[in-house]
Design brief:
The chain is an alpha/beta fold and 353 residues long. The protein is built from eleven helices and 14 strands.
Length: 353
């Protein structure tokens, strides 16, 4: 198996909790370099993963100059400029969600990767969940009456009681505030002037519900008609149509409680399917697929709970990315595919009156 050197931009929670442990343990990858605006964080993470001091950066441009670097993992807050620069530097790119804060950013990133001939994959790990793949297999060729995509999240404050997340105190608050303002401006360019009230709902669609919009599109295709959409605070409700199938989308966030309620329900004449996802940082916890049907020739109803596999979705997505680079294949969750995610969320927001 060919080995690729990975550099991580943004050494915060998602990098430390999920990506770095798998990259460190999996064959085919070497954690080669680190870059973050916090020198303290870079130093602490480098010590934990034995990254040489010479491969630690706070300057992204210098980070990209390393000729030994094959792949850039982008876990920073803003992904557009880093992804475009990485593509121009000839690096393959794994970019975390959201894939841009507006459609123009998403298209710019996808075009940069296409133009440079590098692989770009977006970290929609639930697309690689064995439970989802089993659910997807079961609905092929079936007439679906109704599908419901529900993502109700809560506070992640308990994360630091579960995991030892390394942090620093050397970045001025003004830096974070400036970054937030830039993100708000990018979102406003998509929403339109005077629609700032939609920030909470749009931000949640981009950052949380994108886990499900990718699954929705890969189940029902891109020919989706938005029939209705409404948003109040951080909550969004929408009704879509794909052929004869109605799709209900529910997205919400309550920061006062540590809650995670994410599931998909599929209603078909032969059987109903419900796929329940665990908290995203809960390792090796499989998605649970519940099948409701009838015992043949009896009229007796039954429920069966299926665990498709205990394979970790994060590990599976990195294995997929490795094969895409080494075998010159397009990732299932490519940058070009992710453009359609931002397009769908923008259309939903456009439908809100």
């Amino acid at each position: 198996m060919k080995n690729y050197h990975v550099g991580i931009l943004g050494c915060g929670q998602i990098a430390q909790i999920m990506h770095l442990p798998y990259l460190h343990d999996m064959p085919g990858w070497t954690v080669h370099s680190l870059c973050d605006i916090s020198a303290e964080v870079v130093q602490k993470v480098a010590q934990k993963y034995h990254v040489p001091e010479a491969n630690c950066y706070t300057d992204y441009d210098r980070f990209l100059e390393d000729q030994a670097l094959d792949v850039v993992l982008i876990c920073s807050k803003d992904h557009c400029e880093p992804a475009v620069k990485a593509a121009k530097a000839g690096k393959h790119i794994f970019v975390e969600k959201p894939f841009g804060f507006n459609l123009a950013q998403a298209e710019q990133m996808a075009e940069a990767a296409d133009g440079a001939g590098v692989k770009m994959m977006v970290g929609y790990m639930k697309r690689y969940d064995p439970g989802f793949e089993e659910c997807l297999r079961r609905i092929q060729g079936k007439e679906i009456s109704l599908a419901r995509f529900h993502d109700f999240g809560g506070s992640f404050a308990h994360t630091r009681t579960v995991y030892d997340v390394l942090s620093g105190s050397d970045v001025a608050p003004e830096v974070f505030q400036s970054g937030k303002q830039a993100i708000d401006q990018a979102m406003l360019r998509q929403l339109g002037e005077g629609r700032e009230r939609l920030f909470p709902a749009y931000r949640l669609l981009l950052g949380v519900f994108c886990h499900d919009s990718i699954l929705l599109r890969h189940m029902f295709g891109e020919d989706l008609e938005v029939l209705f959409a409404d948003a109040c605070g951080g909550f969004t409700t929408a009704v879509l149509r794909a052929g004869n199938t109605r799709i209900v989308l529910e997205s919400g966030l309550v920061m006062t409680r540590a809650i995670w309620d994410e599931h998909i329900e599929i209603y078909a004449p032969e059987e109903n399917l419900r796929l329940d996802f665990p908290w995203p940082y809960q390792k090796n916890a499989p998605a649970r697929l519940t099948v409701s049907d009838s015992v043949p020739n009896t009229g007796i109803t039954r429920e069966s709970v299926i665990t498709a596999s205990l394979e970790e979705a994060y590990r599976r997505e990195w294995a997929h990315f490795h094969s895409c680079i080494s075998e010159d294949k397009e990732p299932l969750t490519s940058g070009r595919d992710a453009v359609n995610d931002i397009r769908l969320m923008s259309r939903i927001m456009d439908a809100v009156r």
